[in-house]
């Protein structure tokens, strides 16, 4: 047995724009840093509801929403990622989150995650539609129909609820969020590098 | 006469934590990029009120607030900046914003800005207090008492209102924000590098 390396839990929401930016680069960035990622789809809906929001803050605050889409367009262009804003926004990501949860954390979750985010934000298709989820997973070489079926498994549903509860317990209020083994919380695609640095060094590099 | 170089307008609010991180490095970062900064203190209060908020979102949403202070502590440590959370938070930054507005944009505004932010967030003193504003400006080698007096000048008050109106017109909803000559808006200390790149290249560098 080898000792496990530094670990980082990545919480992401399937309807979250900045989660798209983060998950598409997460596996490579973590590998470069020598950090093992726990891939944790979770649901922001219950967290937003507890704050009194019934939709995304990007819809509730139009100036912030307009800015977010422009910022996403600029950053996706710089990263070479396609961007087609989904309609409706935010999508209901429950089924897609459950389908990912049905996969092994250290196996096919990264691939399934990227496929579903690329479908949601790179093509604008509605991932609330089981056929869309199935096609995205098939396209990634996974068994789409079987995973859509397994998404309804009570154990899978419970595991997704547990991931959301763990996020709340860690202080998560938005997505993506990253939590180190010593409990440090980092919020946003912008903080991925900080989170990886903390996971390996226990501190941020001096600027 | 030499042709003016690329320009960037920096909107900052004296009570804003992430504005502290940005303004302390703004002059050096802009000089390295060859960009001329228009230093624009403005007021977030009217913008927050229009969104239905009567205080900072960091107070309205406790999980977000707890995270922000921890994030600030980590990032200030990495940047070698002192951090003492002001009480009350947010401070009323009106007087300090007016005192900076009384100075020439291309003259002493950068120095006055850094002095007042360092007092507000590096010592936790309340910049709503005229004596605190005066001392901070004196400490930066400026005429504190005279600037506090000039803050009450109707032309200075009007200039600060105009800066806030200009921010709203540019789509600003938070601080710090950066606006390029071609109208691109960048929000947050995290976007300063993007803003400088856009000001000089008209695009973000590929990642």
Written description of the protein model:
Chains A, B: Keywords: Isomerase. Chains A, B: Residues 8-194 form the DSBA-like thioredoxin domain. Chain A is of the alpha+beta class and 207 residues long. Chain A has one domain (7-201): Glutaredoxin (3-Layer(aba) Sandwich), CATH 3.40.30. Helices cover 54% and strands 9% of the residues of chain A. The first copy, chain A, contains 10 helices and 4 strands. Chain A has helices spanning 17-33, 45-50, 57-60, 62-79, 94-101, 109-123, 130-139, 144-150, 154-169, 192-201, and strands spanning 7-12, 36-41, 177-180, 185-187. The first copy, chain A, has a 4-stranded mixed β-sheet. In chain A, helix 1 links the parallel strand 1 and strand 2 (36-41). In chain A, helix 7 (130-139) crosses helix 8. The longest helix of chain A has 18 residues, at 62-79. The first copy, chain A, starts with 6 loop residues before the first strand and ends in a 6-residue tail after the last helix. The model of chain A has no long low-confidence stretch (mean pLDDT 94). The A-B interface holds A 51, 61, 63-64, 66-67, 70-71, 74-75, 77-80, 171-174, 184-188, 190-191, 194, 198, 203-207 and B 51, 61, 63-64, 66-67, 70-71, 74-75, 77-80, 171-174, 184-188, 190-191, 194, 198, 203-207.
Q: CATH superfamily of chain A, please?
A: Glutaredoxin
Question: If strands are numbered along the chain, what order do they take across the biggest sheet of chain A?
Answer: 2-1-3-4
Please identify, by name, the CATH architecture of chain A.
3-Layer(aba) Sandwich
CATH class of chain A, anyone? Alpha Beta
SSE pattern of chain A, N- to C-terminal: EHEHHHHHHHHEEH
- Mean of the pLDDT scores of chain A? 94
Examine the coordinates and then state which fold CATH places here, giving the name of the CATH topology of chain A: Glutaredoxin
The largest contact between protein chains, plus residue counts on each side, is: A-B, 32 and 32 residues
């Amino acid at each position: 047995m080898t000792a496990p390396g530094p670990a980082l839990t990545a919480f992401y929401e399937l309807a979250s724009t900045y989660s798209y930016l983060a998950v598409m680069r997460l596996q490579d960035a973590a590998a470069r840093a020598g950090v093992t990622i726990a891939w944790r789809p979770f649901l922001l809906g219950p967290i937003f509801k507890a704050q009194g929001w019934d939709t995304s803050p990007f819809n509730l605050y139009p100036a912030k929403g307009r800015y977010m889409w422009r910022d996403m367009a600029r950053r996706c262009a710089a990263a070479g990622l396609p961007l087609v804003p989904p309609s409706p926004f935010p999508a209901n990501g429950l089924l897609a989150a459950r389908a990912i949860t049905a996969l092994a954390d250290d196996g096919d979750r990264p691939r399934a995650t990227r496929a579903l985010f690329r479908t949601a934000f790179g093509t604008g298709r509605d991932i609330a539609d089981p056929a869309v989820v199935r096609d995205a997973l098939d396209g990634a070489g996974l068994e789409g129909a079987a995973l859509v079926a397994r998404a309804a498994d009570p154990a899978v549903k419970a595991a997704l609820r547990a991931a959301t509860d763990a996020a709340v317990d860690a202080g998560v209020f938005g997505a993506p969020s990253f939590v180190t083994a010593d409990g440090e919380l980092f919020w946003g695609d912008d903080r991925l590098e900080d989170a990886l640095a903390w996971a390996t060094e226990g501190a941020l590099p001096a600027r």
